[in-house]
């Protein structure tokens, strides 16, 4: 095809777009929220390659249905896809363009969404970040304390291996904020307890990678006393240790997911012990309660909010003592199911004046 | 015409008409589904989202035109962005320095790729896959955790409009202009020649290796521009920010009518292709496709678009007995 | 007149083929110097060493008496050498203007292109050839959309735009019409008057005599002599080129086949975009030659019979059964074999072992369930062919590219013999093959016909046609122009058909 | 008359290591380096473990090898996603029950093959460049996964599959290694001892010549993509046996490493040259490298950079393209 005509078409397309834009540019911006009940709520989730996220979305939808019955809300707009920061910015902008009143976001970045959050704020939309706190002041973080979450299992492990014990660590993704927050807290715990951290490797929060990484670590450090790992990888770490036939010698910090608990349950007969700190997908539900209260015009009570972060409690921890009870309740779920917990509407209301 | 042309493997290439038609269709469908598509906010915000992909698609186009491919462009975006944001540190007066740093990093990354592909003659797909590790690792060294901030003036201006025209649209037009200027430069002419027929280009005194290097360097330059757009769009640094742009840029290039075999096409189409890609995501959202089916629809649309381009090839095949 | 160009002892080896084996050439400015020799004698390689696209293994090149080191096209350009090779250096997606100035684009400041200057330069270069184009000069058209003749002219204009002192024209007239040839010759004569040395390579002896002053003849990569053309007869020149091989008249021509009972290939009105209404009949045991100037549709006819070209009309019948002309795979299953003209691009798998090259077309016959190969039977099959065709090789596991040209060609032929085809289509089977292997290939072709196969042979070598064919169809512009019966098939008759008569004149 | 220039092909006098030998030497060197850096790395148990990890990449890269040998820019970027999908289907259908193992594997492989068929048809009939076709297919398969699972993978590996993969057989070697060896032999047989394999090399080495030799090139290419997806699916099933439970991005990360393993093993991306033995060694090299980097305590950033640099070095050994000038 002769080149000039193609260039002409490209130019024409760009020209037409520009003209239309110039013509429409003067019209008013999106109206955004600000209306009364019923509210439209948006959810932006930038990663779907994990069941935890699915559980999060489904839990939110269920809680939302309750509010719908009460007539408090009318529509939940879900933006959920595998995407990067740029894609999530587009997600949030789409939600803004849908005139939602509030956005619940599980952010892909601690910082990189700041600008779009400001856009939302300027349109009068309230934004709640879950799972991972963000730096933006235009957002209310509704999160568990990741540092505390890490400390619980780290303390347990430190107690198990004792002073002078040697451990290895299988972390998530280096540079990821949640990873850093958790690891910094756990590192401090181990330092205080005089536990030696022999090696730190990344398992990308991926069970298969975690299993392979742990296998490699075991080769080099066959005599470690324990391994500390984050959620999503405990099953892989367990299998690696099991394959090396060292379950009796090596203590593993576990997780509150059915898959791991099944392994735990099977090994319990041999004296295996572990711990599972719940990282609740239900944080989204807690955030929804907060959002409805906030949209109703309430403000957070003093002391309940630190800066712009509302810390919700870690629901519970599965340990040797209460294992039977939790296993009995959740054992029927699929392996990927995370033990969950969320604030009740009443509990959430207590955060407000 | 050589009879054997018919059984040789042609590279599929979308015609310019097809790309423009896709863009028009995407705009029409999107504005039908999205009531406030034409509002100032929707337009500014949409264009603000497009710029990074558009910029990286232009860079990818140049590399593809030269007969290569660069799978490290996304990592280059990340590295340029974190280098710039570290220098910026939220201060407006450091902006020129940061821009220079981003461009410098982009050019250096491009030069490394060019060196590896043109001089060491490694196969571009795997070589740039390998360098992408180097770049993203360095990004983590420069900025171990998300942070750094871009002056608020930058992010504000980026999402503003001048005389009703969004600044982000101006940025896209600026990228198009830059491409237009490059097209008038000897280097781009040589890029086309080398991608179209390296042997003929070599015999015609075109410095083939140097041209290939320059194509990757230009790719790095546009990656740096994409990084600046990412910073203006996000307002802060993140050591993972650009990585997923790479494959999208290849898709945009092909949707824009550039042959992956090299030598044919242009960045004008890739710019439109990038916008089409982004609009498809919007359409799927505003069409209320259930969340679980969105990626299916998204992928299917891209393949269908390419399949439409391939149908002429199907018809040109010899008639069956 | 002082010597402008002196090449001495140039040697070049590609894999197993010694393309140049001590070639010499001396030429002066202001002459048109023909470079002659049979196919595969090394003319093109010598041209390429001068243009810098091939770096010789050894040898010396002097220009104006100064030793020249030509390591690449840029060196050649700096020395004032420009070349037009058989394989054009046209980039199809660039416009004619862009192609003419490619590599030497006129630029303004900072390397920005000066479109007007480029256009002017291209227009000036093409202006001299204006008569060769139908209509206006196609300056802004993508070069790939031009016809082959026009592309060739653009290539020459591009070389001229480089203002060379030495211009190499390698088969530059092969795809030109008569009028275009005239235009080109006029330009070459102007160049000669201006003191430029033109090295001219062509298969058309009439062109050589019409244009050139002197001729250097190559054979098997070696210079056998330089002659003043004005003082040389055509026979003498031909003898220099082909050497002292036995004259075809001395060879016994195979008797016409018995006919009755043998297979019959009947082609009726075959038409493609390069063939016009071709009809003929061949019988088993017969060798049908395709003659005429090269590029008149001979290769296309063979490809069409093999299902590799799109047929717009006509059909072919083998023993009365219509042949499937829709795909090479079907044609092969129907018992047809093609030894294609471009061995490297169409015939062999350079990087694959000899064994696989030989087995490929017939292995399904030996495979269990047409799928599982037995190493032993494949090896045995290959061994049979290696012995039968006397292929000289190290190991059947070596890549076929390690063989000499003649042995490569034997592998390509052997691939089909293993499939026991009823019709064998040979497209210039001895191109680039040395003399000894040539004779062996002739023997193979004769043996095939003796075994009752139908053989259709295209050859750019008229001696070969004369030696092998029972009948020859002379093709011109895709149509059968003349049929020479067995008795009339002599080299002289063919040469007069193909060489002496200018295209377009009736025979 | 001059003597004919026919001569016997030159035998290569100086022995130059083939890509397989070279890659093998690198693997050994990496193991030795690992042993020096962290004693125990070269222990029998660890070597077995490394081999076991390499097996998944090795199986997935079988298909990748086939597609790349087929030439024409052939590459299958969808192998990771297809492997994930196969594991998800397998897991849901077998649901931890040995009785459903066979139908589960059959269904998973059939779906994978169907995806490969679509890839092959797109690449041959519609002439979509393989890179983009299989890239687009990633999105489609991810969509299918989400649609099929609703975002919540379910089921579990059947115990028989787990014991097949993880169970120790002779020499304390896990069953997985025997499976890999069997599949590897199958791949080598397919490439070297079947008409399909020889056609495949022919198409990759010279597509025009292949067509003119009566090879049905399009059909061969389609089969190549079907096989690629099928082996990817098989890799996913084996991974399921290893992890016992699935998740939504189980095998995604194998996409580009599978290409790298093929190239490090000496198979040319241009097509027509190579084989599976090299790929298998390439998979081992990459895995040993990962293992070595894990045991080196140099932090995530440093590991990533070193990984890239080592990859470049490996590629420069055999992944080079030809020169323009002769």
From TrEMBL, chain A:
<feature type="domain" description="Periplasmic binding protein">
    <location>
        <begin position="41"/>
        <end position="298"/>
    </location>
</feature>
<dbReference type="GO" id="GO:0030313">
    <property type="term" value="C:cell envelope"/>
</dbReference>
<feature type="signal peptide">
    <location>
        <begin position="1"/>
        <end position="25"/>
    </location>
</feature>
<keyword id="KW-0732">Signal</keyword>
<dbReference type="InterPro" id="IPR028082">
    <property type="entry name" value="Peripla_BP_I"/>
</dbReference>
<dbReference type="Pfam" id="PF13407">
    <property type="entry name" value="Peripla_BP_4"/>
</dbReference>
<dbReference type="InterPro" id="IPR025997">
    <property type="entry name" value="SBP_2_dom"/>
</dbReference>
<dbReference type="GO" id="GO:0030246">
    <property type="term" value="F:carbohydrate binding"/>
</dbReference>
<protein>
    <submittedName>
        <fullName>Ribose transport system substrate-binding protein</fullName>
    </submittedName>
</protein>
<comment type="similarity">
    <text>Belongs to the bacterial solute-binding protein 2 family.</text>
</comment>
TrEMBL record, chain B:
<feature type="transmembrane region" description="Helical">
    <location>
        <begin position="12"/>
        <end position="32"/>
    </location>
</feature>
<keyword id="KW-1133">Transmembrane helix</keyword>
<feature type="transmembrane region" description="Helical">
    <location>
        <begin position="94"/>
        <end position="118"/>
    </location>
</feature>
<feature type="transmembrane region" description="Helical">
    <location>
        <begin position="245"/>
        <end position="262"/>
    </location>
</feature>
<feature type="transmembrane region" description="Helical">
    <location>
        <begin position="125"/>
        <end position="143"/>
    </location>
</feature>
<feature type="transmembrane region" description="Helical">
    <location>
        <begin position="163"/>
        <end position="182"/>
    </location>
</feature>
<feature type="transmembrane region" description="Helical">
    <location>
        <begin position="269"/>
        <end position="287"/>
    </location>
</feature>
<dbReference type="GO" id="GO:0005886">
    <property type="term" value="C:plasma membrane"/>
</dbReference>
<keyword id="KW-0812">Transmembrane</keyword>
<keyword id="KW-0472">Membrane</keyword>
<keyword id="KW-1003">Cell membrane</keyword>
<dbReference type="Pfam" id="PF02653">
    <property type="entry name" value="BPD_transp_2"/>
</dbReference>
From TrEMBL, chain C:
<dbReference type="InterPro" id="IPR050107">
    <property type="entry name" value="ABC_carbohydrate_import_ATPase"/>
</dbReference>
<dbReference type="InterPro" id="IPR003593">
    <property type="entry name" value="AAA+_ATPase"/>
</dbReference>
<feature type="domain" description="ABC transporter">
    <location>
        <begin position="246"/>
        <end position="502"/>
    </location>
</feature>
<dbReference type="GO" id="GO:0016887">
    <property type="term" value="F:ATP hydrolysis activity"/>
</dbReference>
<dbReference type="GO" id="GO:0005524">
    <property type="term" value="F:ATP binding"/>
</dbReference>
<keyword id="KW-1003">Cell membrane</keyword>
<keyword id="KW-0547">Nucleotide-binding</keyword>
<keyword id="KW-1278">Translocase</keyword>
<keyword id="KW-0762">Sugar transport</keyword>
<keyword id="KW-0677">Repeat</keyword>
<keyword id="KW-0067">ATP-binding</keyword>
<feature type="domain" description="ABC transporter">
    <location>
        <begin position="5"/>
        <end position="245"/>
    </location>
</feature>
UniProtKB/TrEMBL annotation, chain D:
<keyword id="KW-1133">Transmembrane helix</keyword>
<feature type="transmembrane region" description="Helical">
    <location>
        <begin position="101"/>
        <end position="122"/>
    </location>
</feature>
<feature type="transmembrane region" description="Helical">
    <location>
        <begin position="254"/>
        <end position="278"/>
    </location>
</feature>
<protein>
    <submittedName>
        <fullName>Ribose transport system permease protein</fullName>
    </submittedName>
</protein>
<dbReference type="InterPro" id="IPR001851">
    <property type="entry name" value="ABC_transp_permease"/>
</dbReference>
<dbReference type="GO" id="GO:0005886">
    <property type="term" value="C:plasma membrane"/>
</dbReference>
<dbReference type="GO" id="GO:0022857">
    <property type="term" value="F:transmembrane transporter activity"/>
</dbReference>
<feature type="transmembrane region" description="Helical">
    <location>
        <begin position="50"/>
        <end position="71"/>
    </location>
</feature>
<feature type="transmembrane region" description="Helical">
    <location>
        <begin position="169"/>
        <end position="191"/>
    </location>
</feature>
<keyword id="KW-0472">Membrane</keyword>
<keyword id="KW-0812">Transmembrane</keyword>
<keyword id="KW-1003">Cell membrane</keyword>
